[in-house]
Amino acid sequence: MGGLSGLRHLELRNNRLTSLPAEVGALARLRVLDLRANLLTSLPASLSELRGLEKLDLRWNKLAGLPAPAQRLRRGGCVVLI
After folding, report:
1. Residue ranges of the domains in the chain?
2. CA–CA dist 36, 28 (Å, integer)
3. Which of 3, 31, 33, 57, CA to CA, is 20 to 30 A from 69?
4. CA 18, CA 38: separation in Å to the nearest integer?
5. What does the alpha-carbon distance between residue 55 and residue 35 come to, in Å, rounded to a whole number?
6. Which CATH number applies to 2-81: 3.40.50.300, 1.10.10.60, 3.30.1330.10, 3.80.10.10?
7. pTM of the model
8. Please, are residues 17 and 39 in contact by the beta-carbon 8 Å criterion?
9. CA 62, CA 2: separation in Å to the nearest integer?
10. How far apart (Å, rounded) are the C-alpha atoms in residues 3 and 81?
11. H-helix or E-strand spanning residue 69
């Protein structure tokens, strides 16, 4: 994902994703990450490295609760929708 380092908005909704690569944490300029309506059951720990993330949308996934990386982002001021 090195070629996407300047990406600010990433919309991956409705893609039947079951996982995210750890490299997503390298998208340092990302502000909005839309993961709605996938099949995610967990998130990579590297997601908490996205310190500038303002909005993370996890609605309509298979998550049992708020994963630890999303909790850390929320504490940092990110709006997390689940």
Report:
1. 2-81
2. 21
3. 3
4. 7
5. 11
6. 3.80.10.10
7. 0.92
8. yes
9. 28
10. 28
11. helix 68-75
In the chain, the amino acid numbered 60 is W
Give the position of tokens 């609760």.
Answer: 65
DSSP string spanning 23-46?
A: GGGG-TT--EEE--SS--S---GG
Q: Closest by alpha carbon to 60, among 79, 36, 80, 42?
A: 36
Tokens 């994902």 correspond to 1
Element (DSSP H or E) covering residue 11: strand 9-11
- Tokens matching residue 32: 């909005």
| pLDDT tens figures, 5-60 | 789 999 999 999 999 999 999 999 999 999 999 999 999 999 999 999 999 999 99
Give the C-alpha separation, 5 to 9, whole Å.
11
Using an 8 Å Cβ cutoff, are 34 and 54 in contact? no
Q: Which amino acid is at 15?
A: N
